[in-house]
Amino acid sequence: xxxxxxxxxxxxxxxLPTEPTAGLVAGGMALALELARDAASHDEVPVGxxxxxxxxxxxxxxxxxxxxxxxxxxxxxxxxxTAACAxxxxxxxxxxxxxxxxxxxxxxxxGAIVLARVDFLVFxxxxxxxxxxxxxxxxxxxxxxxxxxxxxxxxxxxxCGELLSAFFRARRG
Length: 173
Ligand code: ZN
Description:
Blueprint: H1 22-41, E1 48-52, E2 58-63, H2 76-88, E3 98-103, H3 107-115, E4 120-125, E5 150-151, H4 157-172
Parallel strand pairs: 3-4, 4-5
Antiparallel strand pairs: 1-2, 1-3
Bound molecules: zinc ion (ZN).
């Protein structure tokens, strides 16, 4: 599992893989937003997530399916992690994997992100009510855990947040 790359090495702790390109992040967010819109069209809270391997290959994508599966854990990020791990045939993702989500992951998903050893995380909208990647708590960067995730900035926070706001506005009628 080489982390060799001709990209710019990140300045974090040594041994960490190379940061994903801005193009990969932007493409991932565009797809995640598409999935989130699809979730809304199925009356699910609009959240989408995409996972890429270290070479930029797409490992999995998912949207919220809480109603569809009658499963409170069927969050986009959790479903994408399960599918990505099944795809690589291991309970941990390869070093350098990236998860892109339209919404700040909750405690459950943040825990799963750490368990799967995701190295890079990008989320669109912050979630002050349940976000566990810096808002309510910060599971992915908790120094007490044996794996920490690098958060990368997103330019799509407003679009992701507006999708959620519109969904809840419509729901309230
Ligand atoms: Zn979640």
